[in-house]
Amino acid sequence: MRNGCEQTCERIVPSLQTCAFPAAAKNVGFTLVSEDTLSIDFLGRTYTITKARVSPVDAQEVDVNILSVLVYYTISRGTGEPWYDFCLLHLWGVMENRNCTGSPISLYRIKK
Q1: Who's near 85: CB < 8 A, 6+ residues apart?
Q2: What are 21-44's pLDDT values in tens digits?
Q3: Cβ of 11: how many Cβ atoms within 10 Å?
Q4: Which residues contact 4 (CB under 8 A, 6 or more apart)?
Q5: Residue ranges of the domains in the chain?
Q6: What stretches of 1-112 adopt beta strand conformation (E)?
Q7: Among 42, 74, 69, which residue's Cα sits nearest to residue 58?
Q8: DSSP bridge pairs for 43
């Protein structure tokens, strides 16, 4: 059975079909490769976004949460490049959210 993160990703990917990629590229700072393809460097890897999927260029395994974040960025109405402070939450013995350096973080991101 698929976990909740996988189900979320499967549910939001179809929204790429109706996304205007030229406008999305301009809004969020992605590279417009063609009318139906975007590219972005995110967390040290390059991803291709099409109307059907998000995939890493290197074809290596990727956490489904990263794919979901990239879909949300693409379909968002936000402007400007995404903040590059996203990192996956880790479990440290107990359920506690920590950032990539291991410092505890809140559930709300505070703009610096």
Answers
A1: 109
A2: 999 998 888 999 999 999 999 888
A3: 11
A4: none
A5: 4-75
A6: 31-34, 37-42, 45-50, 54-56
A7: 42
A8: none
Per-residue pLDDT of the chain (112 residues; tens, 9 = 90+): 567 778 888 888 999 999 999 999 988 889 999 999 999 998 889 999 999 999 999 989 988 888 988 998 888 877 666 555 555 544 333 334 444 444 444 433 334 4
Q: How many residues does the chain have?
A: 112
List strand residue ranges (DSSP E) for 6-91, in order.
31-34, 37-42, 45-50, 54-56
HSE-CB for 36 with a 13 A CA cutoff: 6
State the Cα–Cα distance between residues 50 and 73, nearest whole angstrom: 13
Position 59, amino acid: A
Is 48:54 a contact under the CB 8 Å cutoff? yes
The pairing of beta strand 37-42 with beta strand 31-34: antiparallel
Distance, CA of 3 to CA of 26 (rounded, Å): 33
pTM tops 0.90, yes or no: no
